[in-house]
Amino acid sequence: MNNKLRYIGLMSGTSADGIDLALVEFDDNLSEQANGANLTASYYQAYDNDTQEKIMALYNPGNNELDRAGSLDIELAKQFSKAIKELLVQENLTAAGITAIGCHGQTIRHRPIKSQYATNPFTLQIGCLQTLAVLTGIRVIGDFRTKDIALGGQGAPLVPAFHQAIFASNQNDVFVVNIGGIANITFLPKNAPDKTIGFDTGPGNALMDYWYSQHQAGRYDPKGQWASSGSICSALLSKMLSDPYFQHPAPKSTGREYFNALWLSQFTEQITLNPADIQATLTALTAETIAQEISQLSTKSDVYICGGGIENNYLVSLLNQKLSGHKIVNTHTKNINSDSLEAMAFAWLALAFDKNIYGNIPAVTGASKHTVLGMSVNP
Ligand SMILES: Nc1ncnc2c1ncn2[C@@H]1O[C@H](COP(=O)(O)OP(=O)(O)O)[C@@H](O)[C@H]1O
Ligand SMILES: [Mg+2]
After folding, report:
1. For ligand 1, atom 5, which residue shows the shortest CA distance?
2. What pLDDT is stored for residue 165 in this prediction?
3. Pocket residues for ligand 1 (CB within 6 Å)?
4. What is the pTM of this model?
5. How far is CA 222 from CA 40, 213, 237, 339, in A?
6. What does the mean pLDDT of the chain come to?
7. Distance 12 CA to ligand 2 centre (A)
């Protein structure tokens, strides 16, 4: 019999903008293959300003972090549960109709390498799995990153294995570029599934969102209009590009612990520019760091772009300019809603947990071996 397995993937990224859900069906007999994944519905619930501020306040060291993180851990599980219930109503489903939730949770600290802050590398996602299971009545699979860290990896990125199953091609080199708060790329060289690599290129929208919110009303620069009213300052851009992260070879992953207001201030304090010019330069920084990495890996490819950054027309136009030999395509052409791709990957990682399928790629994360990721919590 051809049973359907139904998973809900839940992702909340470093932009801390809100919760993305993907309802994904898999054929039970196709379960070894992520390309049997069928996105049947999506749902988005924005965080209110208070929740966003509470998340952002935990990205960097501050007072009384334990109480704040502990309480937010439960609060986010409540908000996740609310979003899941709305999705069930939208789709006319009950909890019993869902095999499990694959919950990424909300990263509040990512320290994947030894540093002055972390003698032991770690990564921390909150949104209590047990509370979510109890509130929804659905089994929850989560904590996907810790096992990879235990194996000496960075615990990130985890999406390349899923990208490989969906996008790899025998005819063309393929990139999947996800422009969230941080931007990450997956490289799928043609005809070489064992050569997949993936890493964070650096800031996606995080610095642009920060700068915009300091100078304009709102959380982000709609369509990149404010940035496009400014001029890119090439001196500032090249100073920012000299940051060692951009030269560092993969595996590498990063977060708002590094690319934040403090990082930006070391450059902006030395220079007098109109704020819109800085916004234009930050947009160029995101485009340039993505394009540089792609150009080093391939001269001609299909570049699938996804994540909220693709709504920024100015950013996408800069990417097109810098990657003129490549074909930039929206994931819509693969019948995938680009906002749901990350959440879909966590639905697949939940299936992978249930089926004992490896979720990490050691060449991507730096882990010592392939492994099944995550843990399961019953309601
Ligand atoms: N209409 C838009 N114009 C410009 N930028 C946008 C638009 N919509 C979303 N974004 C950007 O996308 C971000 C959210 O993207 P998302 O993929 O959810 O990131 P994350 O995975 O980090 O949460 C927003 O913070 C904003 O920077
Ligand atoms: Mg988001």
Report:
1. 312
2. 85
3. 13-15, 17, 180-181, 205, 209, 220-224, 307-309, 311-312
4. 0.95
5. 28, 12, 22, 16
6. 95
7. 5
